[in-house]
């Protein structure tokens, strides 16, 4: 897969980066942790510009969220969960993953999209509950764009500065993602406690 990704970027440049990031959102086994650092290394070699890669990566990531958003909007949770349980193994997707993403969305608010876009394994799935909850499209796109831009900047810059060691980004990003996930959970717990205290005071 790595050779195919590299070939597509070499032959199509920014459009290749955009298309790969669209696919990465639809097929989680295609890793943005490899795509963008590799493109960042290409920018370091002068084959593309750093800003151009970041913009292409962000645009592709945002466009890739739309199919799942509209699927979530068109179908209810139960139908999507049943489909994932039956066919999701081809996309490494389970009905349980859909329910968890939806619970996160319902429990912790729309801001989770902003930070969730930087958590591998969660970032792609958040589009479904956003659609199922009928979150307004402009609001969804705003949060998704900001989160995707931060993620694209982080990965592309890492590949740019690491140079030939860009393939190490995939190993380094794991701990960072866990920190982000931990902060999200801590924030959610704090919101939960604050609401409980407010209800007790009432």
From TrEMBL:
Pfam short name (any one): VTT_dom
Topology in membrane: Multi-pass membrane protein
Protein name per the record: Alkaline phosphatase
Residue span(s) of domain VTT: 30-160
Subcellular location: Cell membrane
Originating organism: Deinococcus ficus
Major site of localization recorded for this protein: membrane
A GO CC term assigned to this protein in UniProt: plasma membrane
InterPro entries per UniProt: DedA_domain, VTT_dom
Regions that span the bilayer: 12-30, 50-71, 140-163, 175-193
Keywords assigned by UniProt, alphabetized: Cell membrane, Membrane, Transmembrane, Transmembrane helix
């Amino acid at each position: 897969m790595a050779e195919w990704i590299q070939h597509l970027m070499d032959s199509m440049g920014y459009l290749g980066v955009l298309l790969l990031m669209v696919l990465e959102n639809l097929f989680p086994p295609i890793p943005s942790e490899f795509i963008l650092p590799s493109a960042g290394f290409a920018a370091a070699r002068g084959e593309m510009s750093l800003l151009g890669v970041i913009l292409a990566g962000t645009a592709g990531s945002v466009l890739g969220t739309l199919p799942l958003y509209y699927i979530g909007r068109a179908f209810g949770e139960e139908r999507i969960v049943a489909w994932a349980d039956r066919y999701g193994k081809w996309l490494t997707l389970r009905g349980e993953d859909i329910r968890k993403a939806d619970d996160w969305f319902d429990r912790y608010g729309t801001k989770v999209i902003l930070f969730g876009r930087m958590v591998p394994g969660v970032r792609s799935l958040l589009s479904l509950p956003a659609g199922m909850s009928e979150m307004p499209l402009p609001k969804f796109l705003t949060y998704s764009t900001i989160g995707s831009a931060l993620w694209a900047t982080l990965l592309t810059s890492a590949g740019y500065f690491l140079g030939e060691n860009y393939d190490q980004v995939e190993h380094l990003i794991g701990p960072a993602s866990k920190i982000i996930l931990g902060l999200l959970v801590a924030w959610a717990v704090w919101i939960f406690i604050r609401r409980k205290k407010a209800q007790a005071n009432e």
